[in-house]
Automatic annotation (TrEMBL):
Gene3D superfamilies the UniProt entry points to: lambda repressor-like DNA-binding domains
Residue span, HTH cro/C1-type domain: 32-86
Species annotation: Corynebacterium stercoris
Pfam family, one: HTH_3
Domain of life: Bacteria
Protein name per its UniProtKB record: Helix-turn-helix domain-containing protein
Length: 124
């Protein structure tokens, strides 16, 4: 980045980004639930493998709970799923951003993808 220039995303950009992150988390949970149901395992069987109550699994599946990463890993392990995390830097639209000390060119504020981070949950 050029010295003295700091990219400041607008509140609309941050709101959209937050919505995308929520959608990604919901998609992950929905896919895990699909794997449980397609495997024929009951919520109670998953709970026993996880070492929790059936009520916790029911809350997880009804989206009435906000699970920790540990709970997501344990659920994935119980349903036989591998989960792959991908972390990238958000590339905000060039035409709708503001900056301190003037506008940025694309090369000034966009950074390359950080890379894949993968972890087999069976090893957790």
């Amino acid at each position: 980045m050029n010295a003295g220039r700091v990219f400041i995303p607008t509140s609309e950009m941050l709101e959209r980004h937050a919505e995308d992150l929520i959608d990604a988390q919901s998609d992950l949970r929905e896919r895990l639930i699909e794997l449980r149901t397609s495997s024929g395992k009951t919520q109670q069987e998953v709970a026993e493998i996880m070492g929790v109550t059936g009520a916790l699994v029911a809350d997880f599946e009804s989206f009435s709970a906000n699970p920790t990463m540990t709970t997501l890993r344990r659920y994935a392990l119980a349903v036989g799923a591998d989960v792959h995390y991908k972390v990238t830097r958000r590339s905000y639209s060039q035409t709708s951003h503001t900056a301190i000390n003037g506008r940025f060119k694309s090369a000034d504020w966009r950074e390359p993808q950080i890379d894949w981070a993968r972890r087999d949950l069976a090893d957790a």
